[in-house]
Amino acid sequence: MNKKIESLVDELREKLIAMRRDFHRYPEPAWTEFRTAAQVVRRLEELGYDVSYGEKVIKEEEMMGVPAADELARRQRRAVEQGADAEIVELMTGGKTGVVAVLDTGRPGPTIGLRFDMDANDLEEAKEARHRPFTEGFASLNEGAMHACGHDAHAAIGLGLAEMLKAVQDELHGRIKLVFQPAEEGVRGARAMVTAGVVDDVDYMLGIHVGMGHSPVGRVVCGGEGFLATSKLDVTFNGKPAHAGGEPEAGNNALLAAATAVLNLHAISRHSGGATRINVGTLVAGSGRNVIPARAQMEIETRGATTELNKFVKERAIKIVRSAAAMHDVGTDITAAGAALGGTVSEPLVKKIAKIARSVPGCTTILERGPVSGSEDYTFFMDRVQKQGGQATYLLLGTDLAAGHHNAFFDIDEEVLPLGVKLLGEVVLQLSTAAL
Ligand SMILES: [Zn+2]
Fold first, then answer.
1. pTM here?
2. Structural domains of the chain in order of their starting residue, each with its CATH number
3. Mind listing the pLDDT tens digit for each residue in 130-166?
4. Residue 247 C-alpha to ligand 1 middle, in angstroms?
5. Which residues make beta-bridge pairs with 318?
């Protein structure tokens, strides 16, 4: 392993922990990462990267599950109050909180992309003595939001890596692209960055996640597998209200349409090609006891072991929703609130990274394959890069957890931060100099 990287990472350790704790203290859920992204921009510019953000890296039409405009505006103001650069935040208006930083060495070589997500969860953080972020004073200051998945660690690792790569710039070849993605939770953000073209020139693409059932620090999975493709759909049935006693026939019952849909959605056939899922997670309908319900809203998700299997369930689901609406003569509005693809990591790249990881002190257990849990919109990056002939993988960095992901007591072993930077630094260095 490169000696410079090894010694530099020890110097970076305290800084990494401080960055992670700063992000942890100011958690921002999907599309509201104004402060986080502004800090990322400022740091990357200080380091001398070529930085793009806002509408240059986010395609507005492809943003899914975006909060209402007034909430976005409130979060934008709060970010500035909490120390974000107002000019940077202004350019992220509307929730365009993605950031891309490029390091061009000027020497021939591959383009290596790395994706780091930055968003927090909609969750109130535990404020109890047994929760270290609380006792050590870096628990969430933002009501109803918490970094309970480790994306604070991802953002810190991304910035630490940026600093590391600058320090070894003379030994690198090709171009390095650091992608900081908003709105991974709910699988809402990746598509808008990928369709903006941010990885169209990438030869090697890497994504990371801490934890996910892998522990302790030192355990590294070089190729995550088992991504479920998924579609999140928001459905509204629009009917017509009427007096339930006086003139029921004049109404169009949205509640009945929704109820008809729910039962039939759960009756979508299993598939011989592999695992599928369907869930109607919420159903809210009606306005009063004696009124024919004019409106019903549902949140649905479909999943599949592959993109094709998910497509099968999703297309059936849409047909059922429309047919149920037709039965009761009500209108429907179906919007995509999130999506992720299936996908498999590139075998040659996994093998290459496993070999590199074996040379990195601190990487004690190196697995080529290991399971991911659920869905990840990183799959959009992976898919795009593989479709244009590049290779992609997803690394899992082990860490002990105080509680599971998305739990109010979630906390990581911060030693995963320096180890992550060391490993990724070495991987980027080796890949950049290896022949394509
Ligand atoms: Zn996560």
1. 0.95
2. 3-225+343-433 (3.40.630.10), 229-340 (3.30.70.360)
3. 999 999 999 999 999 999 999 999 999 999 999 999 9
4. 51
5. none
